[in-house]
Each structure stands twice: as C-alpha cells, then as structure tokens.
C-alpha cells in the first residue's frame, strides 16, 4: 500500500517537473522569437545605424561633381509649384545643378529669380554649391525640355516636371540604379505599348497607361516627367532626331516623352528600368487630363514607328526596389 502511494507521488512529481520544464522551454522559445524579430528589425535598419543613408557621408563619397546629377525641370506659368519643387529637390545630397526650362513669352521676373536663388542657397549650406540656371527659349515647344545644354557638369540628367515630387532618398536610389546602366532610361512612371489586335497590322500599336502596366506587369517606356538618362541623348534629340518628329511634337503639344523613349531604345536596343517610388502630385491639371489623351498617344506611337522604320521599344517586367526600406521583398 505504501509502495503504491509512493509510486503515485513519484509519478505526480515527475509530471509536475515535466510540465514545469515544458513551460520553461515555451518561455525560452518565446524569448528567442522576440530576440530574433528584434535582430531582423535592427538588420533592416542597419543602414541608418551604419551611416549608409547619412547625407554627409554620401556627399564625401561623391565630392566629384561629375558623379552627381543635374535636374532639368520643365515648367509653364505655375510659379508656386516651381518654388515648391525647387525648394524640395535642392535638398537632395548629390544634386549638382538645376536647369529650369523656360519657354514663356516673358522672362522670369526678378522676384522669382531672387526667391529661387535664395532658397537654393538656404538648402545647400552643408558645403555643396548647387547651380541654378534658367534656360530661356524664344519658342514655346515641348522639344525645349530636351534641348542640348552645353555647360552641363554631370553626365546624369534627372528630367522632372514642376508638379511632381519624389522623396530625395527615392531620387538618390534611382540615380544609383542609373549608374549601373547609364545608357538606358531609369524612371518612376512606366507606360507600355502593344500591337493593335483589331487592325491586325503589326505596325499599328496601342498606347497603354498606368492601369495597363498594373494589370500586365509589363512596360516598355518610362516617362521623362521623372526619369534619369545620359546627357548625350540631349544632343541626339537636338541634332539627330528627325525634324519631322520635332515639328509634329511642337504642333500637337504632346508625345515628346514618347519620342525620347524611342530615341534611347533605338540607340541601345534595351528596355528602360522602372524604379518603385512614391509620387506626390502637387499640380491639378496637365496634358494628360485632357480628353482623348490615350488616343493621341496611340497616334504618336504609330507616327514614330513610321518615322523610325521599326518599333524600337523593348518590353520588360523588371522593377528596381530599394530593399532597405521594405520588410518583405
């Protein structure tokens, strides 16, 4: 009887010890999971702790202005937007110069010049010397945004409209991507084309906007409203682009960005690169808001194919993403 009682007590003690051990293991496992997630979080932000995103370090690394980039900004009678854009982009660490494409009948006012010069100086007190210039044009044409600039100090151009804002880290990342493929266009706004199935002609195409890119995951152009490309393409556009195409763009006030995409693709035989980035549209109106925009762009593609004698655009599904700023990729 005593032996049986002793056996039951022994079993109970062993059971309690086992339960205690299992509970302790669960707690340790939970602690290990917490530590693991903490380490993952710290690793994802390691670039900040190690100074990889430190603007001063980036400035020292790219002290040679030729390793920076120049902004070519298109504008038209939207002075508040222009001020806001210049104020923002002048803070970007590797920016070397800003060229404002001015095609208005009257020159920029003294007050506008003084304000923009002042804001650039205010935002570049860290030892940088960002140059601000107005490139004055006597003719009002969308071709002016790609007119050759003789005194550019950098190979890289960031072409941007005055009504779109991208955070400086996104611009800097796109610049890094461009440096790895400096002959192609690298941008934030993808578009596509495809053969018109209704007309049954391989030389007739349809222009696809953002929703077409989103649905198919494919694109063949990045628009110059927010794109990097080499300065040599300004010379090619100005001096070697068929005059009929430039005249067509001036007359129709559209499609200069498609023409640049054709030019680069024809020279490289390669697709552009789409960089993921958050866009802030600070303007309310533009050419794309007008009726029949997609139909006009489709006509431009067919017209340019006829001029080039072939379709140079190359479709792709590649997208560049800065993995330092996301959890899962």
From TrEMBL:
The keyword Manganese applies. Its cofactor is Mn(2+). Residues 69-322 form the Glycosyl transferase domain. GO terms for cellular component: Golgi apparatus; membrane. Keywords: Disulfide bond, Glycoprotein, Manganese, Membrane, Metal-binding, Signal-anchor, Transferase, Transmembrane, Transmembrane helix. SUPFAM superfamilies: Nucleotide-diphospho-sugar transferases. Transmembrane segments: none annotated. Belongs to the glycosyltransferase 64 family. This is Glycosyltransferase family 64 protein C4. It comes from Prunus avium (Cherry). The lineage of its organism: Eukaryota, Viridiplantae, Streptophyta, Embryophyta, Tracheophyta.
